[in-house]
Amino acid sequence: MAHTVQSIDYPEGGATLSVPKQSFSDPHHCEVFFNPAMRFSRTMGSLCVGVLKPASVLDGLSATGARGVRYAAENKGVKKLFLVDANPLALGFAGKNLKLNKLSSKGKAVYDHFEDFCIAHRGEFDFVEVDPFGTPAPFIESALDALKSKGGVLSITATDLANLVKKNAPTLRDYGAKPLYNDFSHETSLRILLGFIARKAWERKLCVTPLLCYYELHYVKLVVEIEKGKRKPVLGFISYCDKCLSRFVGMRKKCVCGNRLLYAGPLWLGDFCDKKFLKKLIELNGERNYEDRKRIEKTLWLLTGEQGFPPWFFGTHSVSDEFGLAVGKMSLLMEGLGKKFKVARTHFSPNGLKTTAPAKKFVETARASWG
């Protein structure tokens, strides 16, 4: 008798999904993976597909096929969809979800390893989704190969933040970069992954443009445009002082305060979102009645305000702890900083601020603003 997994039908966005019943109590031990907590991410991905309008979509490592099915069900411009997974049990869920959402004519569930599938279907897709358990690093080159020769879009998820935030050995092994554990570690993690993708693309004489990159819960999500070109990626290092909290672009050995510096990189140094693209996402989100509509809008507006700053933010609680300050109102601190510097809230942390102010001025302003 064939082995089966108990399932339920679950409505999400504009689709009905057949998923393992165990997903709602213990998703990480399901034989076919589906995490209800990732609904926000799947919805963000569908909005990206809605704006970009790719005709062909590859959902690699698809498990139940939830992402790809939602992308096609909610965006009629998708004409070809492949759901690929090397778990034979996943194939049944993916196939059922295509039928449930009347996508059988344009979608196909395939039992295969992602890398092998990409070799066999080199240059076929406008949009490639890679959402693995853990690091996406081993799949980036195959994903690039699957894009059409003129270019396309990669949508990449990394859930290995425990490594990307502070573990040197696995981050060096997977991404060829050094992490940095401090108040802005999650931004550094995102930039390390973005830099890794840019380096892999550059090896193929391809350019990367970040469209939508963000951090949430236990993961970072990157949606990047890939195209042919000679524009070198904006890569480098960040140096950080754990005594005075100064931070600098570049690899330095000693801080102005005399303390030795820590560093992270190589990583992406430029903006991590495209503001015009974000505006289109905000408009489309306003037209759709998603469950996470308000939270998505808030996140997109925060991301819009975060561009055009140095590649870090200041965690106000970290500053408070280091210098013995009582945390006051963020509005007062922002008002004080805004007199001489650019400043904005960040989606990375409710207690974080992006600013052009150096650490010394940030601390001085915090002390003056909070008394």
Largest sheet: 7 strands, mixed
Strand content: 15-25%
User: What's the helix-strand series?
Assistant: EEHEHEHEHEHEHHHEEEEEHHEHHEEH
Query: Structural class, from helix and strand content?
Result: alpha/beta
Strand arrangement, major sheet: 5-4-3-6-7-9-8
CATH class of the largest domain: Alpha Beta
Helix content estimate: 25-40%
What does the oligomeric state look like here?
Answer: single chain
CATH architecture of the largest domain: 3-Layer(aba) Sandwich
Kindly give the count of domains: 2
- Uncertain parts: none
Number of strands: 15
Number of helices: 13
CATH superfamily of the largest domain: Vaccinia Virus protein VP39
CATH fold-level assignment of the largest domain: Rossmann fold
Mean pLDDT: 95
Q: Quote the distance from N terminus to C terminus.
A: 72 Å
Radius of gyration: 22 Å
| Anisotropy-based shape | globular
Describe the structure.
It is a single chain. The chain is an alpha/beta fold and 371 residues long. The protein has 2 domains: 7-232, Vaccinia Virus protein VP39 (Rossmann fold, 3-Layer(aba) Sandwich), CATH 3.40.50; 313-371, Phenylalanyl-tRNA Synthetase, Chain B, domain 1. Helix content is 37%, strand content 24%. It is built from 13 helices and 15 strands. The chain has a 7-stranded mixed β-sheet with strand order 5-4-3-6-7-9-8, with helices on both faces. A 3-stranded antiparallel β-sheet has the order 11-10-12. Strand 1 and strand 2 (15-20) form a beta hairpin. Helix 1 (39-52) packs across helix 9 (275-287) and helix 4 (114-120) runs parallel beside helix 5. It starts with 6 loop residues before the first strand and ends with a helix. The model has no long low-confidence stretch (mean pLDDT 95).
